[in-house]
Write a structure and sequence with these properties.
The chain is of the alpha+beta class and 478 residues long. The chain is built from ten helices and twelve strands. It has two domains: 324 residues, Outer membrane efflux proteins (OEP), CATH 1.20.1600.10; 73 residues, no CATH class. Helices cover 62% and strands 17% of the residues. α4 runs antiparallel to α10 and α6 packs across α9.
């Protein structure tokens, strides 16, 4: 029973392995996998998070600062008593602590402009992330289409090889019967060798294009990988295309690469305002609380809030008389013991204030910062223009490619029909001995070349159409 159970488990594991190995990848699955695992997308996501952090920081910069401090000191010899601020000659331990806060009131609109600058930077990061995803998607579609294209070329090469093998068998029998000369058989066998080489090349192209897609998906080369082959109808001819200018106008409003360039330009514009804030005065308010403890404090501390008592204190006698010279001193009426908490209570200090910082001369640093910000803004404006120009050129080229591919496909369809009739006629004449293998091979090669060219034109038209669909915001699927 145990052996049977193990055998069943092994069979089930093998079936599971086979099912996994035979799993096919659709175009949508390839795109989803790339969007989830692509390194460039992950880097763009990190740029997005950085922009979010920067924006959060600029938004929080208008809030108050709040800080606390603690300190401990030990002095030996002549020092200043922290309690009375008098000079003493003894060992002293002291502790202090406090809390303070400050808030900006006006800083030349720096915070406002920095906030708007970082908002635009975040928008640009979002659009850059979207553009990176679009680029990755388009690359996956390109590699996926290449596999389909090379597979169909492989099928054409295999069918050509089968046709040549069939013809070689017929010619071989006719040569044996003396109906055809030996030269015809040699010519057919040479063509057979060429067709076998073309099959090998086509197989290599399929493997190479599959490897390119694996690399785009960051899948190991030795992983079993099969793509789903969709039903691709022959391209429809005669459809009305929008003009390249219409496609460009749509892309200009919707392509994330343009939106990112616009957001970067706007961010640089607010950056000028941030730099100019250095010309203005800045105003801030502050408040704080502190207290301290000293081992050199007296044993008795004045009670907080106690009434003051005026006393007459003798300080000497007038010379030559019995008259006493006195002075008046004020002292607290009540005292309390010098404990740690009582001393902290007595030494409390509270403060509040407003400060104004007026820039007068700063070695032209603000001027230089403004000039750099202006230059950066101009650079982003030029980048926006360059991005628009590149987009227009790409769309115009894609538009022309689609029109050219459509014409080429139509012409090759007509050429294939004529080449096929010519090939069928040459095949019949070869079997009847009305032509030799050289002429037959030439006609057959012309026919196969037209078939291969038609396959290329078909996929060229499909892919070029997908590129144009991409700029029109249409889904990239088959």
């Amino acid at each position: 029973m145990i052996k049977k159970g193990l055998l069943i488990l092994l069979i089930m594991a093998g079936m599971l392995h086979v099912s996994q190995a035979q799993e096919t990848w659709s175009l949508q699955k390839c795109v989803d996998y790339a969007l989830e695992n692509n390194i460039q997308i992950k880097q763009a996501e990190l740029d997005n998070k950085t922009a979010e952090v920067n924006l959060f920081g600029s938004r929080m910069s208008s809030l108050p600062n709040l800080n606390a401090n603690l300190g401990y000191n030990y002095s030996v010899g002549r020092s200043i008593d922290p309690f009375t601020n008098t000079i003493i000659d003894q060992d002293v331990t002291s502790q202090n602590g406090g809390i303070n806060a400050s808030v900006p009131i006006f800083n030349g609109f720096q915070i406002r402009n920095a906030k708007k600058r970082d908002e635009q930077s975040l928008l640009a990061a979002n659009y850059n992330l979207e553009d990176t995803k679009n680029t990755v998607t388009l690359n996956v579609v390109t590699f996926y289409t290449n596999i389909l294209f090379n597979r169909e070329l492989l099928e054409v090469a295999q069918l050509r090889l089968q046709t040549t093998q069939t013809q070689e068998n017929r010619v071989s029998k006719q040569v044996e019967l003396g109906a055809l000369p030996q030269a015809n058989l040699l010519q057919i066998r040479q063509q057979l060798a060429n067709d076998e080489l073309e099959v090998i090349r086509a197989e290599n192209n399929v493997e190479l294009s599959t490897l390119q897609l694996k690399q785009a998906l960051q899948i190991a080369a030795d992983v079993d990988f099969q793509i789903e082959v969709p039903e691709l109808n022959d391209p429809e001819q005669g459809g009305v295309l929008e003009s390249s200018q219409q496609i460009y106008e749509y892309a200009l409003q919707n392509q994330p690469v343009i939106k990112a360039a616009k957001a970067n330009t706007k961010s640089a514009e607010y950056g000028i305002g941030v730099a100019k804030s250095g010309y203005y005065p800045s105003i801030s308010a502050s408040a704080g609380f502190s207290t301290a403890y000293s081992s050199a404090a007296p044993d008795q501390l004045p009670a907080i809030g106690a009434e003051q008592v005026v006393e007459q204190v003798p300080i000497g006698i007038v010379e030559g008389t019995n008259q006493v010279v006195v002075t008046q001193t004020t002292r607290p009426a009540e005292f309390r013991d010098n404990t740690f908490m009582n001393q902290l209570d007595v030494n409390q200090r509270k403060f509040a204030g407003i400060s104004v910082n007026i820039p007068i001369f700063n070695r032209f640093q603000v001027k230089n910062n403004v000039q750099r910000a202006v230059i950066n803004h101009e650079r982003n404006e030029y980048q926006l223009i360059a991005t628009k120009n590149q987009l227009q050129q790409t769309i115009e080229q894609a538009y022309l490619d689609v029109k050219t591919a459509s014409k080429a496909y139509s012409a090759l369809e007509n050429s294939l029909e004529a080449a096929e009739l010519s090939f069928e006629n040459a095949k019949q004449r070869l079997e009847l001995g009305a032509t030799d293998a050289v002429e037959y091979t030439q006609i057959k090669n012309d026919y196969e070349r037209v078939k291969s060219d038609l396959v290329r034109a078909k996929y060229d038209f499909i892919f070029k159409s997908k590129v144009l669909d991409f700029y029109q915001g249409k889904p990239l699927n088959f």
